[in-house]
Amino acid sequence: MGSSTNRTLRSVMWLLFAVATLVVGVVSALQVRGALEREREFRAAPACASAPVRASACVWEQDFTVRTADMHRNDRYETPEAELTLPSGEPWHVTFRNTDPVLSEMAPGEKVVGLVWRGRVVEVRDAEGRSQPTSVGPQEWPADRLGGALACLSFGLPALVGWVWSVLARGDRRRAAAATVVRWHGVALGGTAILALWAQAANDWPLWAIPAIWGPLALLGLASMTAFTLAALRGELTDEAPATPQAPEPQAT
Question: N or C, which terminus of the chain has less Cβ within 10 Å?
């Protein structure tokens, strides 16, 4: 009873994960074009002739003073953030996706420059010339969206196929083992997409580097999945004991 309940719970969890990641993957894929257009618009934006009084498509470099900076290193659910103040004393709250290279070196009273675009601080530069995009900055978003789409779709599709196969293979140990192989290879394929995104971001490579890295790794993963699936269907991954014990042969007297 308990074993059957656990199998049912695992099956439901696989289904939920598969559907959720597929939905996120499709949404991320649809956002790649918009993210690219927004990044191109930002890079082509002219400098403002004067400090904008309202949200503007031009870029303005505004001097700020750091009031607080919090990395939230011990709290994974909190976003790195800082509070900056204008010369007039008006506070501006900004958040970041990571802590380096600028936020980790911020100290209260330090002077920084914020790039204001469309009424929001999209990038912060320190006195040494280092820059870091904020959470609302348009840069790097296309890569994040593409990498996220590849990771979610790479995991979600095999996970869903494996789940459907496992449901249809009730009582068939070979097909159930093959379904398990497909599901777990989906995890590996999703991991290759995350690895490709990490390599692209760490080396500041162009966007096309993500599919260029992920493609060969995905082909290796698919080849491995095919080989192990065939092995499972041949019974090489299951311990198939005979259903009924064989009677011993009668001994000659």
Answer: C
DSSP 104: G
What distance in Å separates the CA atoms of residue 27 and residue 121, rounded to the nearest whole number?
26
- Across the chain, where does the E strand assignment appear? 59-70, 81-85, 91-95, 111-117, 120-125, 131-133
Three-class SS state of 175: helix
**H/E stretch holding 227:** helix 209-233
Residue 93 has what DSSP assignment? Answer: E
Sheet holding 91-95, edge to edge: 91-95, 81-85, 59-70, 111-117, 120-125, 131-133
* Structure tokens, 252: 């000659």
pLDDT in tens, 181-191: 999 999 999 99
Q: Are strands 81-85 and 111-117 parallel, antiparallel or unpaired?
A: unpaired
Residues whose CB is less than 8 angstroms from the CB of residue 135 and which lie 6 or more positions away in sequence, other chains included? 79, 94, 95, 96, 97
Lookup: tokens for 183? 């599901």
Nearest CA-CA partner of 92 in 73, 71, 119, 110: 119
Quick one: what percent of the chain has pLDDT higher than 90? 63
Grouping H, G, I as helix, E, B as strand and the rest as coil, residue 3 is helix
Give pTM, 2 decimals.
0.72
